[in-house]
Amino acid sequence: MAFVLDKENIKELILSGNIDDYPEGIIVPIDKPYRWTSADVIRKVKWCACRHFHKKNLKVGHAGTLDPLATGVLLVCIGKATKMAEELQKHEKEYIAGITFGATTPSYDLEKDIDQTYPTDGVSEAALKAALPGFLGEQEQVAPLFSAKSVDGVRAYELARKAWKRMHAQKAEPVGFDHSAVETLSRQLINIIDIDL
Fold first, then answer.
1. What's this model's pTM, rounded to 2 decimal places?
2. What is the CATH number of the domain that holds 169?
């Protein structure tokens, strides 16, 4: 089993300057900052790990990409733990998304400015709770143009940012929400809490 860094055992890692003390590798949960790409995090962790372990090069990867505008836990794998990245991605995840009603953007997030507004008179906590069951279970979804989804080996958001005019037709893929909860903050803003099993 790889060494999973947490606040209880961080001293052990700091005191050990030898990567060979961790034959199965190291897994570091990182709270990815806003606007950082997952690759930015990997570069920084790799630089720090190479300095700490006095190595010119170390294998460093992550278990799942987070969009630059998303914050949250990014599992960074160091050394032989990089072989576990694919398996780690299969585990349960929880997503919390703030949704503003009555406005849209071309990117479906805050990367682009609001391009259209709509009335929110019909939005209520009761209506939202009634609508949520329709989103539970597996459904087909086409990823937005501004997403971390790979299109011919390139992130869709990179293509969209460069105003690539001819996006390849993307196929709908199964996505699913197994449990959701609504936290109403105001008529226009709620948090959807999803546990993806």
1. 0.67
2. 3.30.2350.10
